[in-house]
Write a structure and sequence with these properties.
With 395 residues, the protein is of the alpha+beta class. It folds into three domains: 83 residues, Elongation Factor Tu (Ef-tu), domain 3 (Beta Barrel); 159 residues, Threonyl-trna Synthetase, Chain A, domain 2 (Threonyl-tRNA Synthetase, Chain A, domain 2), CATH 3.30.980; 119 residues, Diaminopimelate Epimerase, Chain A, domain 1. 37% of the residues lie in helices and 31% in strands. The strands form five sheets. A six-stranded antiparallel β-barrel has the order 2-3-7-6-5-8. Strands 16-17-18-20-19 form a five-stranded mixed beta sheet, with helices on both faces. A four-stranded antiparallel beta sheet has the order 9-10-15-14. The chain starts with a strand and ends with a helix.
Length: 395
């Protein structure tokens, strides 16, 4: 069984160890040591990386009571080497894992919410709770979690036997089959207490800062994206700089940006209403000037809503059916609409249009719509006018 020094002295950067065995697998090597400072993947936490002598350790895995080190070269059984872990990676993982415990314990104390999932990746971490927390609850959770950070209470791990484990009350008891069970206490259990195999900071103050970045409803509860320590500071700085850049684009400060955005949104809504009103007027005038039985036309600058509006106007002003194309940039939209009682099926018409302009679309006999990334030429419009005219007159 490997002696796990990362539990005895969490930030011990190196140790001397003897190679117990080494086996090749897929071009890499699986090395067992008599002792190690390298933490294997477990408890939602990725493994450490590091080195054994000159050999690079890509990852570590637990196999029963042993730690398997995956290296880039073989190591002779019985040889002794210095074992080191990647300190910045360990610090980052310990900050995230300790922060997760603080969030979980605080959510349980404030809302009775249970942690039902935790995942830590290289660039994000998530926590799943079994209760839905709205924005106000998440703000309180983040505030209280950071208050626990500032109190700088100790984080301790205790390995206990089954008899003692069965007598204690903690926030979360995992289903552990081993006779040696590790329980992590934060603030003596006041902030949190649960079974855990991960690495942690020595005190909550070392976490530095806990940031809830986002959340969503998930399986009846809440999924929270969070970050802690250096990772949280880096993300907060990036968000602050981005906010300042956006504010400069509005010629205002970051503090005044929400008001500037609301003002622009109100102005944009007003412009949209005015544009719609003008487009309706334009469509009416076009319809009054095109009283043919089955008009087919192209309108530059018309989007999907506009072509439908013009088709409605044409039919309302006497057209038996209308086929309207609109082009905005490279995007072409089209709409086919018939008057009540007409027999020409619009879904058949759109199928013919799709084949001619290499588009996609569909609908029913009364209304059909489509789109294409190919330009619609005057020659295509002429072909469609003849096709629509013949079909309409023969039905």
């Amino acid at each position: 069984m490997t002696e796990k020094l990362y539990y005895l002295i969490p930030m011990l950067p190196s140790c001397e160890a003897e190679v117990v065995s080494c086996a090749e697998k897929g071009g890499k090597y699986l090395v067992r040591l008599d002792r190690t400072v390298i933490f294997p993947a477990g408890g939602g936490q990725p493994s450490d990386t590091g080195s054994i002598g000159e050999a690079k350790v890509f990852e570590a895995l637990e196999d029963g009571g042993d730690v398997i080190h995956v290296t880039d070269r073989p190591l002779k059984a019985g040889s002794r080497h210095t074992v080191r872990f990647d300190i910045p990676r360990r610090l980052d993982h310990s900050e995230q894992h300790t922060g997760e415990h603080i969030l979980s314990g605080t959510a349980h104390r404030l809302f009775g919410a249970k942690n039902v999932g935790f995942h830590m990746a290289e660039d994000y971490a998530t926590l799943d709770l079994d209760k839905y927390l709205d924005a106000d609850a998440l703000f309180l959770l983040e505030s209280e979690a950071n208050a626990a950070v500032r109190r700088n209470v100790p984080v301790t791990g205790e390995i206990m036997d089954r008899a003692r484990f069965d007598t204690i009350r903690i926030r979360k008891k995992s289903d552990v089959s081993s006779d040696e069970i590790r329980v992590v206490f934060i603030g003596g259990g006041e902030v949190d207490s649960c079974t855990c195999c991960g690495t942690h900071c020595a005190s909550t103050g070392e976490v530095g800062y806990i940031r809830i970045a986002d959340s969503m409803k998930y399986k009846g509860g809440t999924r929270i994206w969070f970050s802690c320590g250096g990772r949280a500071v880096k993300e907060a700085n990036a968000a602050s700089h981005e906010l300042s850049d956006i504010a400069r684009g509005f010629s205002t400060s970051a503090d005044e940006l929400p008001a500037a955005l609301r003002k622009q949104a109100d102005e944009l809504s007003g412009v949209k209403r005015e544009l719609k009103s003008r487009t309706q007027t334009l469509c009416r005038l076009i319809a009054e000037a095109n009283t043919g039985e089955t008009p087919v036309m192209m309108m530059d600058g018309f989007g999907a809503n506009d072509v439908r509006m013009l088709a409605d106007a044409l039919v309302a002003h006497g057209a038996r059916a209308a086929l309207v194309f609109g082009a905005v940039g490279d995007a072409v939209r089209y709409c086919a609409l018939r008057r009540s009682g007409e027999k020409l099926p619009m879904n058949d018409l759109i199928a013919a249009v799709n084949g001619l302009v290499n588009g996609k679309g569909g609908g029913n006999q009364d209304l059909a719509q489509g789109s294409s990334a190919s330009p619609v030429t005057e020659e295509m419009l002429a072909v469609l006018r003849e096709y629509v005219s013949k079909r309409a007159n023969n039905l």
